[in-house]
Amino acid sequence: MSTAVAVVALVAAALLSVAAAGLLLQARALRARAEVLESRIDALVPGPPVPPDLAATLGTGQRRVLAVEILNPVELAASKIPAARLLGAVRPALLTKVVYDQAAKQVVDQLELEGVLADVQVHAAR
Predict the structure, then answer these.
(1) What's the pLDDT tens digit per position in 16-28?
(2) Non-local CB neighbours of 76 within 8 Å, separated by 6+ positions
(3) Residue 57: CA atoms inside 13 Å, Cβ hemisphere, count?
């Protein structure tokens, strides 16, 4: 009787192995199909429209761009340099330009530390 149990167990193990292999193949096929569908979805669903002031620089196609707007340039500058608040009251556009240029430099430096090659530019609306 123990031989019969061993044979049944061996047959069951073989059937389970075949079923597992079949499931693995199906999972791989589904993963490949999902990747194809994701790429088709990306082609169908465009990202948000490019602001007009950047359209000439960016062009069209599949490019991805991060845009950062500093909402408190005067306060930010004043937190680093107390005299910046006075400059912000007199020449806010100049102070904002300095803040953006410094922020762009800091972003480049940090990205380089992470091994990221990036083109960081400051764009201003006209």
Answers:
(1) 888 888 888 998 9
(2) 70, 99
(3) 14
